[in-house]
Amino acid sequence: MKKRSGILYCITAALTGYAAFYMMMQTVNGSPFPWWGPIMLGSAILLMVVGIRSLAPRLTVGWAALIAAATPLAICTDFGTWPLRCWVFAAVLALSTCFLLKAETILKHGDVAAFALSLVLLASWIAISIGTFHTYLSKPQVTATAAALVVLLLYWVLTLSVVIRSGTTIFRSR
Fold first, then answer.
1. What is the separation, in whole angstroms, between the first and last Cα of the chain?
2. What is the largest CA-CA distance in the chain?
């Protein structure tokens, strides 16, 4: 069961991380909520680390933090530069990984990190969904297509699946 959860977490993280990165790269002047992109990307990276840790349970917290920190640096490498904000983002992700995995160990409930991260991802999809539906239903100019709504539905299904899967692990009686 842990392996299936890890695969679900990694798939959700990969798709959500791609969507967050794509949305961050689309806006030149900034979006109305410029902080949601990095939060969403960071949550996706952390969910990926939690998924990898579910697939490889012997992975230590230090290695998990290193994977989390290396991911934004690898993304910045693609652009040919490592600005200070990339280093800060990598450090924040490393510290967040340590905090989440240590909290999960202290609470002795599995998937606490996945549950918390999936709730953050759900919150981020709310504003995006409202904007997409508003654009789709507006009559003067239709820039959102039905395909965009289907993709949005896929993200909701994946994220809700992670919430339900991790939530059942946390809240079931021992």
1. 17
2. 56
Over its length of 174 residues, how does the chain's per-residue pLDDT go in tens digits? 578 888 999 999 999 988 888 888 876 555 556 777 888 999 999 999 999 998 998 989 999 999 999 999 998 888 888 888 899 999 999 999 999 988 888 887 778 888 889 999 998 888 778 877 777 777 655 566 777 778 888 888 889 899 888 888 877 755
Dihedral sign (CA 113, 40, 126, 146): negative
Structural domain of 91: 2-171
> DSSP alpha helices (H): ranges in the chain?
2-26, 36-55, 61-78, 84-107, 112-137, 146-171
Closest by Cα among 46, 40, 41, 52 to 121: 40
The Cα angle at residue 73 between residues 76 and 33, in degrees rounded to 5? 65
Q: How many CB atoms lie within 10 A of CB 104?
A: 21
Residues in contact with 171: Cβ distance below 8 Å, sequence separation at least 6, in sequence order: none
Taking the C-alpha atoms of residue 46 and residue 67, their distance in angstroms, rounded to an integer, is: 9
Q: How far apart are CA 64 and CA 48, in angstroms?
A: 10
Number of domains in the chain: 1
